[in-house]
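Before going further, learn to read the protein records used in this course. A complete example follows; check for yourself that the lines match position by position.
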Amino acid sequence: MTDIAADRARLLEIIRDRAIVHGRVTLSSGKEADYYVDLRRVTLDGEASPLVGRVMLDLVADLDFDAVGGLTLGADPVATSMLHASAAAGGRLDAFVVRKAGKAHGLQQRIEGPSVEGRRVVVVEDTSTTGASPLDAARAVQEAGGTVVAVATIADRSTGAAEKFAAAGLEYRHVYGLEDLGLA
């Protein structure tokens, strides 16, 4: 049995040490910031990835869902970490990947992995800034016949994503905010 508080504290320590890059950067939104939170340095790390899975599962433990995923690339390691953490705890959770655009060949699917049709899913992302990526993923899931029960991210930058999710009628949760990351 793992101690979720210890997992959460260690994950935060790793994020602060490895993922926060100070200096002027241009974000995907086109806005400039004095820091960048590069969570791929964490979600793809051998020590941190299992922590991501356990902490994110704990964040959404009270929700009824059976699949997780989101827009590639930020969501992919989060979803697979959650899949593996669920399996390690004796559970079953599927993951899916939402392409930025549908394929022009093969099955021409926008969502890869087990079907989301008729399923309850949590859309995940590593960091939320504007919320555009999770909103795009949520729309794709809904168009494919799935129900989005929530959007969940590791870190929220407090730059409007929460308001966009609320306006879209989506429940939103995050593990860490700017204050937790030492950026407020």
Summary: The mean pLDDT is 93. Residues 87 and 93 are 7 Å apart (CA to CA).
